[in-house]
Amino acid sequence: MTGHALTRRRLLAGGAAAAAALPLSGCDPLGQNADVDTVLRSAETLTMRVQRLLLGRNALAREFQATDISPSFRVNGTSRPGSEEYAALEADGFAHWRLKVDGLVQRPGAFSLADLKALPARTQITRHDCVEGWSAIGQWTGVPLATILGAVGLMPNARFAVFHCADELELTFDGSGRYYESIDLVDAFHPQTILAYAMNGADLSVGHGAPLRLRVERQLGYKHAKYLMRIELVQSLKDLWGGNGGYWEDRGYQWYAGI
Amino acid sequence: MFERTANGPKPARSTLIKRHSIATRLTHWVNALCIALLLLSGLQIFNAHPELYWGRYGADGDPAVLSIGAESGPSGTRGVVRVGSVTLPTTGVLGLSTLDGRPVARAFPAWLTIPSYQDLATGRRWHFFFAWLFVANGLVYLLAGVLSRHVARDLAPDRDQLTPRHLWREILDHARLRFPQGDEARRYNGLQKISYLAVIFVLLPLMVVTGLTMSPAMDAAFPVLLDIFGGRQSARTIHFITASLVVLFVLVHVAMVVLSGPLNNLRSMITGRYAIREKGSDR
Predict the structure, then answer these.
(1) CB < 8 Å from B in window 2-31 of A
(2) Do A152 and A101 touch, CB atoms closer than 8 A?
(3) Which contiguous run of DSSP H or E holds residue A110?
(4) For B120, which of A72, A131, A136 is closest by C-beta distance?
(5) Ranges for the Oxidoreductase molybdopterin-binding domain (chain A) (predicted)?
(6) Which of A90, A102, A127, A173 has the fewest CB atoms inside 10 Å of its own CB, making it the most exposed?
(7) Model confidence pLDDT, tens digit, residues B9-55
(8) How large is the ipTM?
């Protein structure tokens, strides 16, 4: 995920520059220096490797009791996608909405809400942690992503699942403000990674991502893409929008959001 | 006691001893750098959601144990800190501060955060890089401290330093700004040892562990973290409290360095050499 290769020279130069950062006024230019940025980003790879080592594939996020559910659950990011397409889908209760699954798969598919609800479901009460620092606990019901991936069959070179969403968080001419997210296959096949269509026992509200949102419980909130329209299996994230694997990642946030 | 030499009276009252090993000196300064940058980037992260809660969850609308913000009133906008039911006006520093001559609503002012402008992603990048360096440096210090017996020899209080009478006298001496001289200056005083041990073995590890408890992946790997601290939001609040205690320690530490001979203390932490002034000298 780094912008350019981390060589020993860059590490030393960047490290020395970072170490000289004590006078506060000096920190802003340093933070914008490419070598310093590369050095700082190197810690992210380390964090992901170490956390994955400690986690293993299947360690579960804690699941809570019904009495632990937050009395209110903050709606974050988009509260209602602005497109006419979404308004039309919402108008008839998402009867014409389809989840497309394509890319590096053997049998590209399209799933209606009824199709998804007919599949075996998983219900989990988990904590949602925003990158900003707040947390809320909610109950989620949905189809394990592994079930869908099994149904379409992955090509051997598929490495990431990309989630394309209906909401545009930033209005742009080229569409680069469209929300998207990505996870690798470790998280895609994790038992708690579900495509949720219900929250706290009711259909997902528009504010929380109707008709379908991703839950990827061992990572921060921005990974939990709302308003899912399409899941694309890819080998690399480089060719998508900013190339960093997500809307917020293209704006500087870490792709691995386990911390 | 005087020593006379051929050149006339000359006070031989000061001897240089070796106080700090190279490992102590290096890790001390790396630690100082890390703590400074962790604090400033931590305040940037706090600014993204300037409220603290107790328990498993907490967000806007949930009861906060502390919040820093700006509120509008009849006399204009003001910065406030709320702790429980107490509201403190803090305009100018907390909640509302001046940036480029204009009032800005932000919890901690621009001059206290990395980067100065609001940028959570960059703040997190600095914070986690220096968190790794801080932990690696701390492990080097602990390993060296155990192997060289620095912890057992220099930090563990001696039996005579732990009597109530002795500690009380040390408290009075500190209050009067009288610091040990002569042979007594060859070792750390009792209060010094106790505070160093508390920072090294309680406060700083607590910083790391409460920080890790905020990571959803770490909570999945070690769910016991949530039981220890009573939830992610409690851990976040404890992280803020322990950071405040570290700041308090640094302020007292630097004050003591300045009051008890700044040049001698600084030299000992740079070159390792510390001057002992003989007791009862007539200077």
Answers:
(1) 18-19, 21-22, 24, 27-28, 31
(2) yes
(3) strand A109-111
(4) A131
(5) 95-235
(6) A173
(7) 555 578 999 999 999 999 999 999 999 999 999 999 999 999 999 99
(8) 0.88
